[in-house]
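Quick start: what a row looks like.
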Amino acid sequence: MFKAGSVMTKDVVTVTPDCPIMEAMRLLVHHGLTGLPVVSGDGQLLGILSEKDMLRLLYEKPVGDASVEEFMTRDVVSFDENDNLIDICECLIANQFRRVPILSSGKLAGIISRGDIIRCILKARKADAPPEG
């Protein structure tokens, strides 16, 4: 079966905890993302900053020089690059989040979104389909 490492997106836009929250919001919008992993300088996953986390900005007055650290979710479900895609799929079905970070030796290696899994399913189903005609 598919492993996380074969499906994950490897070029992940990330932020550090000290990144200004408004800069993180700009990154999210610019790249059309729904969340940003928050990592340390050496790539350790520290949290995730989601659209939902940023919605709190509507109520925060003034935001001023607030950082990502003040808004990020710290308790993040993650998987290893060798974990089975079915386990990740079940996790995304059972929870409200849209993506999960994928780790290699404890460091961020990629991310898998619901869309990544759907594309994988579509590709696998096309391979299983009988030839047309």
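That is the whole record. The chain has five helices and five strands. The first strand starts at residue 35 and ends at 39.
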